[in-house]
Design brief:
Blueprint lengths: L4 H18 L5 H15 L3 H11 L23 H13 L1
Helix pairs in contact: 1-2, 1-3, 1-4, 2-3, 2-4
Length: about 90
């Protein structure tokens, strides 16, 4: 059973804070998966959003390319600021 929207927003926020604590931008994997989670969250697809944020947190050893949806190697990874802004926009709506 999917978690609540509020719980998922808190999980995404904690994940973004963990990246901020590292003092780095998200990796391409983290950025792509988090962006997908936010897109799913924005349209109310909580189950998909939960899956995407779970994948964003995976350690590199457990990541496989078949887990990524709509990922282009040429795509630019979203910045931490962009991800945080999108989360804030979703939270405000």
């Amino acid at each position: 059973m999917p978690v609540s929207r509020l719980t998922l927003i808190e999980r995404v926020s904690r994940f973004l804070r963990s990246i901020e604590t590292r003092g780095l931008e998200p990796s391409r994997w983290e950025g792509h998966c988090t962006k997908q989670a936010l897109e799913a969250l924005n349209v109310g697809n909580i189950g998909a959003a939960e899956g995407h944020i779970y994948r964003a947190k995976l350690v590199p050893e457990l990541r496989t390319s078949d887990m990524l949806v709509d990922f282009s190697p040429e795509s630019r990874s979203p910045t931490l600021t962009e991800l945080r802004s999108e989360l804030e926009r979703i939270t405000a709506s």
